[in-house]
Structures are given as structure tokens and as C-alpha cells.
Amino acid sequence: MYPAYPYNNPITVSPPRTLEPEISLEPEIALLNHFDNRLPRELKLGIFSTLVDSYEIEHARDIREGRWTTARAGKEKWVGRDAGLKELVKISRVSRAWQCLAFDGQLWSTVQSPRAFPSDLLARISLNAGPFVRVLDLSGCSRVNSAVLLQMTYNFSVHPDPVPVGHGKQVIPADYTNLTTINLQGCSITTYALHQLLTRSPCLKTLCLRGLGAVTNATCELLSDCCAKLVKLDLGRCANMDAGGVLRLAKASQEHGKKPLRELRISGLKRVSDTIMSALARGFPDLEVLDLAGCKDLTNASLKEFVAWSDGDFPVADRLTLTSREMGLDPGDPTKYHKRATKIRHLSISSCSLLTDMACTYLAHSLPLLEIFEFAGLGNAIQDEGLVRLLNTTPMIRKIDLEDAADITDAVLEILTPLPQPEVRRGGVVVPPLPQPGHALESLVVSYANNLTVDALTSLIRACPRLRTLEVDNTQVSDAVVREFVKQCRTRGTADAGISAIDCRGISRGVCTELKDRTRPRRGWRGWDAKKLFYVDAADETKVEQGQDECEPAKVLFKSFFSWQAVDTTLAARAKVRKALASRRDSAGAEGGAGAGSREGGSRSRWLSPFSSRRSSGSNTPASEVPSPWEEDGRGCIVM
Q1: InterPro entries from the xrefs (predicted)?
Q2: pTM of the full predicted structure?
């Protein structure tokens, strides 16, 4: 028989196995996008708005609970509302639907752009936000040019539907924006772009164009025609305009009805005359803030015209009847004089070279509501007589700047020192005493006033319960004044108080050492922009071994020659430690991670005390060791 071969064997084909489906015990769950498909649009916008607010609330909580320190601030550039807006822009890339929500106008009613926002992003925000925007703050955005501003103006404008008129004719109303606040300080724009924006902003209430070369006299005329609701206007330091534009603005206000202008800042204005000041008084009788600092043509007669009263132009309630003595004239003259009682609360006439002490005499009795008075930079032109007459009629004064008034004496301080008044009762009820000048005083600047005595300053510090800032640079103050100021501020619990006594021979090193636990040499603040100033913050987790805490508001700011030496010593010591640590890390890396030897060989650096009794010779700040706050650009400017 032949052998059996495999191919002779019968082939049996087995039926294919059928795979039974696996039975899952878990129920099927449909993945639904409830946010996009179920929630209404208004609720989605509310969630996005809460996201932005949560960053602001969290930042405020960190500050309140003491978790916001200098070290943490140096690592987080975007905080608060800026961080929320940044996240809002980031999540707009999730989908097209989220992009429409993130750039919805209800979330961007305030376009307060950080400097890091590119111009194309600003144009995109304006395109989506459109007429919802109420506040446009582009201060410091140098990259915003005329083209961007024109595009934003068009995007902000409301384009109403055509209105049929007559036999099928259509009249399209002019476009307008809903902007109420505009700040363009620091932008590089042209006059045409600026006028296009102002023409379409009839609801404007606050306008800041400080230092813009695009502002001309025609701009003021445009404001008088198109912006009838202006309350605050800042045209200070605009080089291409003069008093002629302000005159047109004031006359237009007087002819077409009184405008509600309350704040006018025209510092550095050229060609200011008596006519200009008289027109301001009649065109804007309700002014509360007037800034005329640096107006070289302003004279005493101009201020006299500003407070003059004339029948028919002002209400009878604003008329003041004064005697010759109150006017600063011959006391024997029985003639009665009239002045206008203004509503000025803040007046700045610093650095007006033609003014003298007679200006204060003209302003006396006409500023009963005055709170802030800036009259600095005039040197020997300021005397006691007129200044005392003015301050005696300003019981609500809070801040006074008399820097460079070298001839004033203790008579000025005596007027600002309130006297104790006896308690008066009427019908069993205590009658509050009349306010005295100085009872609300918060800030006083009398630098370079060499005739002031220590006793007068000490009495002022004790009698003024709200005094928080005192600048007495280059005066005859002594350690007793500094001790009394620090003592009173600590007793009253005054926050952010400060005294400046630079170039004062009566201040010794001993008072700096004595008060170092209650004072600080610099007013430190916690922020990304302050990280290169190297403020000492005791709230940091790292131990502060040297230097005074500069970020504690309860400590009094004390500026003097010796306290500045302490800052230099602190910066030099910290630079030395950083240099030692850097060299130690470099050597450890070069040896391949052998860091034990470096730890054994090196000892911890000891920082020198900035208040050492040993006097230094030569420069106290090693230029090669003290880090500059501007290391990147190499300018080497140290801001104290």
C-alpha cells in the first residue's frame, strides 16, 4: 500500500465562530455641551463677567489677608482686573461661539487698555464692543496712532436707521458714540483723528488731552459746539494752543447757556490775560478745580478779575460785601467793596513768575470752600501778610504747597494751628464749634522756609489731628520735630504718613537709629514695576536680615540724609549676597554638582548695620555692587 499523504486526508471545515456582543453593565451617557446648548446668552455673559471679577476679588483678598508680598508681586505681571481681561482674551480662542461671547460689548463697556495690549487687539475689541463702550482710556499707549483711532471711532459709532422724510426722501442722522470718558494722554495722533472722535462724542463728560500736540484752538471751538456735557477738561501743557482757544470755549458757554464744567486744567497756557480770566469767571461760574500752574503771563490783576463781582453776570447770592480793612486797603476808608464767592476747591497757581503776595490778598474771602492750594516756586515773592489774610478765610483747607517760600515766618503756621475751643451747650445739646483753618490739614509743604522755628512746627503737629504729610527740606528743623511727628502719627494710627527733612543740619544720625523700628526710608509698594527697586518687605517668606521694612503702611516714612545712606547700605549688602550666591552656583556647576564643599567652606554673609556710628568716608554707594533698577537699558537711574 502506498503511504498516506496529508493531502489525501479528508479536510474538515469547521464553521466560523460567531463572536457574541459583550454586554456592558454601564448605561450609555450622551456627552452634551450644556454651556453652549442649554444656557441662554445673558447667563453665559454673566459667567464670563464673573470670571473677570473673580480675579479682582482674589487680588483684593490677597492684599487684605497679607498674602500679596513684594516677592510674589515680582513674579506676577498680570493681577486683578488686568489678569481677568487677559484670561478673557485667551478663552476667546476655544471656539467661534466663545469668541463672540468673550468680545461681547457688555463685557467691554470700559476699554482701559494696559500698555501691553497691541493695537490690533484694541481695534478688534472696538469692532465687537461697538456702541457699548462708555470709557476709553488709552493713556500711555504710544502705539495707538491716527489710523487705529479712526478705526476705533468708526467701530464705536452708532449707525441709526434712515428716517424717511417728505416724498420718499431719506435723511440719515449723523453717527455718534456713547463715550462718556476719554483719555488720550501719551498717544501719537493727528488733529484730524482727534476731531473725528470729538465730533461723534456728544455724551462726553470727562476729557483728558494733556500734552497732546494735536490740540489746537480749533479743538476748543469744536468742544464748545459738540460736547455740551463736559464736566472735567484737561488741556494742560498743550504746546499748539493758547488762551485764545479757552476764550472761545468760555464765550460760547456764556452765549449758549452755562455749561456744567467743574474741573478745568490748563497748566502752561500761553497768553493768559485779564480778559481770559474774566471770561472764565462768567462762562464757568461753577468751577471747583482750576489748574493754572506754569502760566507765565498770569498776573495779580488777572486773579482780581476772576473774583470780581458785577451785577447781571452773577447771582446776588454770590456777592460778598467787604470793608477796606478786609480788602487789605486803608482801614479808615468807609467804602464798601464787592467780591464774588466762588466754588473753587482746588487752586493751583504754582510757578507763575509774575504773581506776588498781593494775589493772595485779592483771593481772600472769595475761596471759602478751598481745600487744596498750590502756591509753590515763587521764592521771595510770597510774604506773610497776604498769605495769612487768605488762609484765615479758608477753614476747609486740607493741602498746602508753599515750597520755595523762603520769607514766610511762624505767622503762617500760627494761622494753620487750630486753638482749643470750649464746649458750648444750647438746650442741653452740644453745639459743634465753628471750623478753624488747620482742623482738616493733611499735607503741608514748607521746604526752604528757613525762618520757621521748631516750636511753631511742633505746635502745628500737635494741634492738627489729620496731618499726614510734612515736607520741611532745607529748613532749621531738629530731631525734636521728627520725634513729635512720628509720635503723633503712631498715636493717632495714621496710615501712609511721611516726613521729609532732607538737607537739614539739625537732623542727626541718632534720631534715625532711635526711630528705625517705627519708620521706613522709602514708601515701598508691591507690584511688577517695582521689582527692580528692591524694596524690603517683611511680609516675604524669606527672612529680612538687614534694612527697614519699606512696605508697611503703619510705619512713618522718614526721608533724610542718613536714611538715604541706609538705603544705599542695604542695596549694597543685598547685591553682595546675590553675587556670592551666583558665584557659588557657578562653582558648584563647574565641579559637577559637588556642592557640599562649597557649603562647608563658605560661611553666611553678615550684613552691616546701616545705622552704624562709624562715619563713612567718600562715596557710600559702591557703583559696581549696587544694582540699578534699570539694568536692562543701562541708564543707571536709582529711584528712591
Answers
A1: F-box_dom, Leu-rich_rpt_Cys-con_subtyp, LRR_dom_sf
A2: 0.84
